[in-house]
Design brief:
The complex is a heterodimer of chains A (233) and B (278).
Chain A lengths: L2 H4 L1 E7 L2 E8 L2 E16 L2 E13 L8 H15 L4 E7 L4 H7 L3 E12 L2 H14 L12 E8 L4 E6 L2 E5 L8 E6 H8 L5 H6 L3 E5 L1 H14 L7
Parallel strand pairs in A: 4-5, 7-10
Antiparallel strand pairs in A: 1-2, 2-3, 3-4, 7-8, 8-9, 10-11
Helix pairs in contact in A: 4-7
Chain B lengths: L1 E2 L4 E5 L5 H12 L10 H10 L14 E6 L2 E9 L8 E9 L5 H18 L4 E7 L3 H9 L3 E2 L5 E7 L2 H7 L1 H10 L7 E7 L2 E8 L2 E5 L7 E5 L4 H5 L5 H6 L3 E5 L2 H11 L14
Parallel strand pairs in B: 5-6, 9-12
Antiparallel strand pairs in B: 1-2, 2-3, 3-4, 4-5, 9-10, 10-11, 12-13
Classes of the chains: A alpha+beta (233), B alpha+beta (278).
Chain lengths: 233, 278
């Protein structure tokens, strides 16, 4: 039997909010919170909505059906508590969006992030350095040499040289570029904050990585392994 | 205090500003769904209580910055410099400007100020979330060199759990809408079906109440499960849903039936500037 079947589903209160969670070996591994929200629909009327938030599952407990069980219990509780409707914020770019649809939620309104990168070269340097510190890349890192062009639209391209396990930002374009990475500044920050996965960004054509195949794969893996999707709803 | 053109200045939050902020918020939010009015106390409490994604205003007065013109508060921005699970970003949670002359200039000055504050805190970017419908805010953000993530990322999803209870909660509002639509004197019954749920509205001049069911209604409106929440929350017009084939209306006088449904469920902008309401 998997953790998805054996985990105990529990609840605890915090003020007007209730947390529903799955417990495995006394550890909260998957959770949803809900609480009352007054939702005005005009000058003379509002509905009492169950606001759903804090949806998340620990990485090692994903794909076991735990989130579905916890969410099912949450929806049963919400209905039992007499709410006429429920609402949540999520992202269209994460798998939970599909799960919510299976529970009867539909898209009502959308917003988009607007981002201003304050210093693209510095942000790129920090991001690349962070990637190089990632344990998954440690092997053979000292031998990896790569000239990278990063185009974070609408900003001008920035250039970096990866060698001897470190990153050096270049003030001008090197003669040869091994890898060219293109994305918007907004996508860069969403990846950097773990709000979007590299796989999704590539599939949605929000990110392109061209050039020497092995370095491309490394950079893609670096982005992917250094960042995580943390927001469910 | 940073002085700007035409008597505009941006300054930190001070004790006693809550009243002006609440007034400004309420004037702005009046026409939106989803925006509950606030008082000075509830605004302050709300900011303090948001343990997950709220700015620690008590510790950092610059989380709230006010725009003053000739000594009068005309706008404010609430920025979280340590947003929940965002390490590198400053998140502008609220930015409202009164309907004053050159309001967009005031908004741009508040954004520029947020950027300055973020730099001082070693942040890499400033982020804000804008509704797809808010063209004015988008114009200001674009002009301030903010870049839109073209993939629709944030989405508010909803589900109607109990249609009868939902409509009962807004009985008075539905009556107001009928009056507002010039149909306050209409008398009859309306059956509302969303997917497998059903509710009935009974209308008398100036009065409306909700029941579970009705036989032989004067107007019957049927919505697909997909179109139900967007129409009931005012994010999709009756005409749009009708054109998409996700809404149908049956009535002896079909044109009148459509007018009734259109009056009951008008389109209304939704309050979506904040990352989350809760």
């Amino acid at each position: 039997m998997s953790d998805g079947d054996t985990a105990e589903i529990k609840t605890r209160e915090r003020g007007a909010w209730r947390r529903v969670y799955a417990e495995v070996e006394e550890k909260d591994v998957s959770h949803v919170s809900y609480g009352p929200h007054r939702f005005p629909l005009g000058p003379k009327g509002e509905v009492r909505m169950a606001g759903i938030a804090g949806v998340g599952t620990e990485p090692e407990f994903r794909r076991k059906g735990l989130a579905r069980r916890v969410f099912q219990r949450t929806m049963d509780d919400v209905k039992g508590a007499g709410y006429s409707c429920a609402g949540l914020f999520t992202s269209t770019s994460i798998v939970a969006h599909r799960m919510y649809r299976r529970f009867g939620y539909v898209d009502v309104a959308r917003n988009r992030p607007w981002v201003k990168l304050l210093d693209p070269a510095r942000a790129c340097s920090k991001a690349l350095s962070r990637m190089l510190q990632d344990e998954g890349l440690a092997k053979d890192l000292a031998r990896w040499r790569c000239a990278v062009e990063l185009r974070l639209s609408p900003h001008p391209a920035v250039y970096a040289k990866i060698q001897d396990g470190g990153v050096e930002m270049l003030s001008r374009r090197p003669r040869a570029i091994d890898v060219s990475v293109k994305m918007s500044a907004a996508t860069f920050m969403l990846l950097r904050e773990g709000l979007m996965t590299v796989d999704y960004a590539q599939a949605a054509r929000l990110l392109s990585c061209e050039g020497e195949a092995e370095s491309c794969a490394r950079l893609r893996r670096a982005f992917g392994s250094a960042h995580r999707v943390v927001r469910g709803g | 205090m940073a002085e700007r053109g035409k008597g505009l200045a941006i300054r930190s939050f001070r004790e006693g500003d809550e009243e002006a902020i609440a007034g400004l918020f309420n004037r702005y939010a009046k026409g939106f769904s989803g925006a509950a009015s606030v008082t000075a106390e509830s605004w302050r409490e709300d900011v303090r209580e948001q343990s997950w994604n709220g700015p620690p205003l008590d510790a950092d007065r610059d989380c709230a910055r006010l725009a003053e013109r000739d000594g009068k508060v005309v706008g404010y921005a609430l920025t979280d410099y340590q947003p929940y699970e965002l390490k590198h970003a400053a998140l502008v949670q609220e930015l409202f400007v009164d309907d004053v002359e050159e309001a967009e200039e005031v908004a741009a000055a508040l954004l520029e100020d947020a950027e300055k504050q973020a730099r001082a805190r070693d942040k890499e970017c400033v982020m804000l979330l804008l509704s797809l419908e808010d063209g004015r805010a988008q114009r200001v953000a674009g002009a301030s060199a903010f870049w839109e993530e073209s993939d629709g990322t944030g989405v508010f999803m909803a589900t109607i759990l109990d249609l009868v209870a939902f409509l009962k909660e807004i009985e008075e509002e539905l009556a107001r809408r009928m009056a507002d639509g010039g149909l306050g004197g209409w008398e009859g019954t309306v059956r509302v079906v969303v997917g497998e749920q059903e509710a009935a509205l009974r209308l008398r001049p100036g009065k409306l109440w909700v029941e579970e069911t009705v036989d032989g209604p004067d107007v019957a409106v049927s919505l697909t499960p997909e179109a139900g929440p967007p129409v009931l929350f005012g994010q999709m017009s009756v005409g749009e849903a009708y054109a998409q084939g996700s809404l149908s209306v049956a009535a002896e006088d079909r044109a009148q039936g459509l007018r009734v449904v259109d009056a009951l469920f008008p389109r209304r902008p939704m309050f979506l500037p904040r990352a989350q309401w809760w």
